[in-house]
Amino acid sequence: MPAEFEIAGHLEVRDGHLHIGDVDCVELAERFGTPLYVSNEQRIRQNIRTIQRAFPEAHLLYAVKANGNLAILRIVAQEGMGADVFSAGELYLALLARIPREKILFNGNSKSDHDLLAAVESGVMVSVDSEMEAERLSSIAHEHGSEVRIAFRVNPDISPMTHPNIATGLRSSKFGIPHEHVRRAYELAQSLPGIVPVGIHCHIGSQILSTEPFAEAVRRMMTLVEQVGELGIELEFVDIGSGLGIPYDKRVPAPSPSDLARAVLPIFREECERLGISPTLCLEPGRYVVADSTVLLVRVNTIKHAHASFVAVDAGFNLLVRPVMYDAYHHVVVANKADAPAAQKYTIVGPICESGDILAKDRWLPAIERGDVLAVLDTGAYGFSMSSQYNGRPRCAEVLVSNGRAELIRRAEGVDDLLANQLLPERLL
Ligand SMILES: *Cc1c(COP(=O)(O)O)cnc(C)c1O
């Protein structure tokens, strides 16, 4: 199978080399070194506009956890998206990227008092995950003399048919209040000072490849909106989170944003009409915005023909944990032999001292030699943002390409960064 058969979108093969955003990946590997994350600005903008076109009336909040690089957050802000943040750190980054505070929702199932105070002080909305959290937020906001707009994160009890580690809306999940407690929770919020219930929120999981669970979630959410309405609360927004999958493996199709819109908008509109209300629909795409905008470039250190043909490269689950954590598929291209025919089956492994450190298993690729540059595709979401320094490996650099230009958006760490906050007690000197 020729490699270009499976390469989609903004990537192309020219003179045998893989290009991203008109820039040669092999040259990028030379110039910036490997491993290296490379993101394409135009692709991110395109992805956002695709969702905006599918949901012209919805408010879109970018899930910062997918990729929190400041340059990428600035692009998201310029395209008019709000943000879904999960910590005071992500909140700080979103505000620094000049995402307007009224478009930020502070989410999380275990917020500290410090987190809640940060939310109150910055004037963002809060997605409250429990009745106890409503009480805690109320007293912090009240003491501060503020009024915080809140939604409750609801557990809609829906199976999204995705990997168990990223199914978040199951009855057994740690997220959200059980849907049968929703009325009670809003009643409580109504009675508490300092918080105003204005929305309702759910998020059923991630990398979901069918629209049915989303339709089911919207149906369930609208019955809850009705219950809340019976308390005299007219909600301003219904936030259905995200989880829209992407076709990591081109043989497994994923629904597009317009497929999603076709599945959920008629239900949403019909229910709004039935209830005589007009809340705003919110979505929180993370993966769809950034995943396919980015490649991880790695270089081949060594090749070993053992019970499999192992290609050992300079990045493993320290920089891309998805294959290990979620059994995820990422397509791999030999960037300097991108139009060469497949020659044999390889297993691509990282340098980490764990036998599970496998990036890609049993892939048909062109004959690989030491020094070749491999591109791991679709690594813009939950790639760098989930990276670590495990095994004493400083994190790599990130580059943004835009119309044929490449700029560093994060320097590679060095050994100094391994020591950054370590302190050696004097007696051990
Ligand atoms: C992670 C997360 C998202 C983003 O999910 P994707 O699958 O990346 O689109 C949105 N909302 C919440 C609450 C999340 O936790």
TrEMBL record:
Pyridoxal 5'-phosphate binds at G243, E284, P285, G286, R287, Y382. Residues 42-291 form the Orn/DAP/Arg decarboxylase 2 N-terminal domain. Its cofactor is pyridoxal 5'-phosphate. Keywords: Amino-acid biosynthesis, Decarboxylase, Lyase, Lysine biosynthesis, Pyridoxal phosphate. PROSITE patterns: ODR_DC_2_1. It comes from the Archaea. The modification N6-(pyridoxal phosphate)lysine is found at K65. Substrate binds at R287, R322, Y326, E354, Y382. The active site is at C353. Its EC number is 4.1.1.20. SUPFAM superfamilies: Alanine racemase C-terminal domain-like, PLP-binding barrel. It catalyses: meso-2,6-diaminopimelate + H(+) = L-lysine + CO2. InterPro entries: Ala_racemase/Decarboxylase_C, DAP_deCOOHase_LysA, De-COase2_N, De-COase2_pyr-phos_BS, Orn/DAP/Arg_de-COase, PLP-binding_barrel. GO terms for biological process: lysine biosynthetic process via diaminopimelate. The keyword Amino-acid biosynthesis applies. Pathway: Amino-acid biosynthesis; L-lysine biosynthesis via DAP pathway; L-lysine from DL-2,6-diaminopimelate: step 1/1. Pfam families: Orn_Arg_deC_N (PF02784). One of its GO terms (molecular function) is diaminopimelate decarboxylase activity. Belongs to the Orn/Lys/Arg decarboxylase class-II family. LysA subfamily. Specifically catalyzes the decarboxylation of meso-diaminopimelate (meso-DAP) to L-lysine. Homodimer. This is Diaminopimelate decarboxylase. It comes from Methermicoccus shengliensis.
